[in-house]
Amino acid sequence: MPQLTTEELRKTAHELRIDVLKMLKNAKSGHPASALGLAEILSVLYFSELNIDPKNPNDKKSDKFILSNGHACPILYAALAKKGFFPKKEVGNLRKVGALLQGHPSRETPGVETASGSLGQGLSIGVGEALAYKMDKLSNRIYVLTSDGELNEGQTWEAAMLAPKYNLDNLTWIIDRNNIQIGGNTRDILPLENLREKLESFNWYIIEIDGHNIMEIKSAFRMAKNISGRPTGIIAHTIPGKGVDFMEKKFEWHGKIPSDKEMEEGIEQIKKL
Q1: Is residue 221 part of a domain?
Q2: What pLDDT, in 10s, does the model give residues 187-196?
Q3: CATH number of the domain enclosing 24
Q4: Model confidence, pTM
Q5: Are 251 and 257 in contact (CB under 8 A)?
Q6: Tally of structural domains, the chain
Q7: Which structural domain range is residue 145 located in?
Q8: What is the distance between the alpha carbons of residues 122 and 120, in angstroms, rounded to a whole number?
Q9: Above 70 in pLDDT, residue 2?
Q10: Is 1 within a domain?
Q11: Domain-located, residue 248
Q12: Start-to-end C-alpha separation, the chain
């Protein structure tokens, strides 16, 4: 597949957002805020960055992406469908019993690397896979995306300490720094700052970006590939509910579904971006 331009990637992100809202409208349940906030990152990952082939998903040379905050899976499903891992009609069956696309990712879904939803486990899985690739002398890269709320979990910090010990420069950790979680704002529940200094003290190479700026996202991924001897963390500052003004920056939309009227209004807002 040819590389998309910056403008094409931006347009793809908006298309993914619309697909997310349509999925949630049909399902009448799910998590809109984080999914909408990750559209640009998933657009760049799946249509510019990852070395993957939907026709050969088990190729040992493929890169791997792990979505640790599994509740944001509608944006992953939208990207996988557009990439060709499964027919796009499947997105209309989100969260239906027996359907391919469940409320949290499952290995039964083509293109999904690991089941997730029990928060805090994704980075540990990514560290294990990155270490295995090193031991097997493979050049694959591992990308792990976690929420910032997952940094409340001790397991995340254990993995964060382990990755530099084994010089896992094939591992890129993306932190969705949207400042909300299910119960409120992260600063009120368990403050994380100064997050960059904490991770750098563990010997991570840290990059901070605007998680909606396509050029900054692409540049961060390129930089990560050139870092030797230690893992890279990307703190991506994002806006939860991005593109829908009544959702943006409001933790109440973590797992709240808009009415049909609100959903249509949201879709129209995104079409105008």
Answers
A1: yes
A2: 999 999 999 9
A3: 3.40.50.970
A4: 0.96
A5: no
A6: 1
A7: 6-271
A8: 6
A9: no
A10: no
A11: yes
A12: 26
